[in-house]
Amino acid sequence: MPTTVTTVNVNGLRAAARKGFLPWLERTAADVICLQEVRAEPDQLPEELRDPEGWHAYHAPAATKGRAGVSVLSRVAPTAVRVGFGSAEFDAAGRYLEVDLPGDGTAGGSGPGLTVGSLYLPTGEAETERQDAKYRFMAEFRAHLDALRDRTAATGGHAVVCGDWNIAHGEADIRNWRGNRKNSGFLPEERAWVGELLGAEGGWTDVVRLLHPDVEGPYSWWSYRGKAFDNDTGWRIDYHLATPKLAAAATAATVERAATYAERWSDHAPVAVTYTL
């Protein structure tokens, strides 16, 4: 059975709803949706956003109101839901939510289970405490990724961690890579960290790049400033990182780029991957 997992940074869920998120949600073919930068407590969301019809919705807001926040929407009920990844510093920051889905993640599915994580990795700022915090997050999250990889391998299951990773791994992942070599999101240390995750020791696969090799992009974020969107001066920072068997089962990957600037409901575009297990 095919399972489609979609991830998108909504840049404020209530704001996105005013710009077109709900019509998108009504027509999407996704089975699981990971949201980042929700920026709201569940009780601040209207019912159609907090508990949309036809979905099982789970939210992990940040302790600091109006910041971060991640959610997972699933058409089938998860067998387990986990907020955070065991970090004393970051588990209340609204940056990670993980669900276990039965079978292949679709209604009536069977076979190994599927773990889906929604990640909002810190943005950072070069040579500041914000960048130091980003590196601390990365170090702790790497340990979680290693454990998740090993656990799914031991059980014969699958896992995908998708979301806004806030790092462009390679030159093909950012249009203006020359001008951003000293900026957070494209620093050598950050890129090396992603490279380690994708190496033999890390054991994870960048599914969109696997299905779109040797091309620039496809970008998933464009600044609201200037003509970045119109000129496709973007970054590819919204990833699906999957365990090997799940990555091998990926059959399609699409960035749902809006047709025009006016039709955008976030500065990010949804990134959808279909896995046929």
TrEMBL record:
Keyword Cytoplasm belongs to the record: no
MF term (GO), any: double-stranded DNA 3'-5' DNA exonuclease activity
Pfam families hit by this protein: Exo_endo_phos (PF03372)
UniProt cofactor(s): Mg(2+)
NCBIfam families, A to Z: exoDNase_III (TIGR00195), xth (TIGR00633)
Family the UniProt entry places it in: Belongs to the DNA repair enzymes AP/ExoA family.
InterPro entries: AP_endonuc_1, Endo/exonu/phosph_ase_sf, Endo/exonuclease/phosphatase, ExoIII-like
Listed transmembrane segments: none
Protein name: Exodeoxyribonuclease III
Domain of life: Bacteria
PANTHER family with a match to the protein in the record: EXODEOXYRIBONUCLEASE III
SUPFAM superfamilies linked: DNase I-like
Keywords from the named record: Hydrolase, Magnesium, Metal-binding
Enzyme class (EC, first level): hydrolase
UniProt-listed Enzyme Commission number(s): 3.1.11.2
Endonuclease/exonuclease/phosphatase domain mapped to chain residues: 7-268
